[in-house]
Design brief:
globular, mainly alpha, single chain
Length: 214
């Protein structure tokens, strides 16, 4: 049993410490951004503030990957914090603002799946908030950092499950195809960004432990 636990621990460390994982995450995230802009513009749901957020996200993703390549830890930390707040603000505006502003009769007409879609969007916001808060706890309290990093990485699995639910539900709702594709690509982009953030968190944790001699 101990051997299996060690094996799983080594597997997730290798996955999140792998340069290939970070490269795939940053490449997918950057490639999704113009697609998000295209479908967001066609559906009329991407306003100037949303375009500005996507631009900032592009800069921060590129900065985070660069800082990981050259091992600039302070720049890495700044990019992670910027990305977390950028995505958290965007999701809160969407889940608590735009969706909440829609007439409740719209969701009633959609049936149970309409309410599930709304609830899952708020659950996505909760998971993103948890990852964001956990990130600050990881670097504020040095004890049991590996547990908190692992919790953040497990949170990615829950986030993936929620995104799959949205991918399955969105097409059967009374939404236009452009809007559905906009939501899909936006959430998938966020997932890849969170994978990149998880890679950076593990690097930062290992460096911190080496610094204090842990």
């Amino acid at each position: 049993m101990k051997k299996n636990k060690t094996s799983w621990s080594n597997r997730y460390k290798r996955f999140f410490l792998s340069e290939r994982t970070a490269l795939v995450a940053v490449t997918a995230s950057i490639l999704f951004l113009p697609v998000i802009y295209y479908f967001g513009s066609r559906s009329g749901d991407l306003d100037p503030a949303g375009f500005f957020d996507l631009t900032i996200r592009l800069v921060l993703v590129a900065t985070l990957f660069y800082s990981m390549k050259v091992h600039k830890l302070f720049l890495m930390q700044a990019a992670v914090v910027g990305l977390l707040f950028s995505m958290l603000c965007a999701q809160s505006q969407y889940a608590l603002g735009k969706l909440s502003g829609v007439d409740s009769e719209t969701y009633i007409m959609m049936g149970l799946q309409g309410f599930i879609f709304l609830a899952v969007e708020r659950m996505i916001l909760f998971i993103q908030s948890f990852i964001c808060v956990s990130h600050f706890i990881i670097h504020a309290v040095r004890r049991q950092e590996i547990i908190r990093v692992s919790l953040n990485q497990v949170s990615l699995i829950f986030l993936l499950a929620l995104l799959i639910i949205q991918l399955l539900i969105a097409p059967i709702l009374a939404f236009e195809l452009d809007y559905v594709l906009y939501i899909w690509t936006l959430h998938l982009d966020e997932l890849f960004i969170f994978v990149l953030v998880a890679c950076a968190e593990l690097v930062l944790m290992i460096d911190q432990r080496e610094y204090v001699g842990g």
